[in-house]
Fold this protein.
Amino acid sequence: MLFQPAEVERVLRLQRQSYGLLKWLNQHLRNGSLSFTVAHRATAESSAAEEWLARNRAHIPPALLPAESERSEFAHLFASYLLTSFTLPAGKVAERLSECHCYCDYCSYVVAIHKLVPRNPVAKDRQGAHGLKRLFLERLVEDLGYPLEKPVEEAVFSDKSLSLDLSRVTYVDHLIRRTHFGSQGAAVLVLWRDVAWEDGRKPKKDFELTAAQVVESEERLRRAISALIAG
């Protein structure tokens, strides 16, 4: 198996916390208790997020914060979630400095958090998502001991249920990668909407992705691929 259930559960918990922090910030940022007055040293968005979280930890509900040992991973996820899922509103490009005058994307996004605009993926992003899915499929087939051949690829992508399973596992694979590296941009947002939205039009009510769903998706793909290869 490519996924370990305990690691998937941990990363999904960090994802839920980052989303919870986003909603909390949207409600509480205007009260002035959070610090943007220190010019941080970070150049990367994730490092800026980590420094900011450390400064403001006492003001954020504990349930929305990771363990200290997970702070760097959480910061990677939170920063990439902001930049992948939203854009600054029109006219904000000229106002990208926060009170700390750092000019970084992270602070600019957090200061404008209640005005951020959800991204709308375009054809290029959907093509990117397809490419990410194909790479994961290739990895999965090779883990079974075979090369990825066109008939198997076409069969998986043409099957709506298997394609959804592939979106699910590819999204989580990149979620795990995002705890250490940057996001693949709006292509990852396309994968999330495949999984969490109704036909790509609106979010599924009360949807929550679980480790069990991810593991089951990998198992179904493995069984289907093995059957396809066996003929």
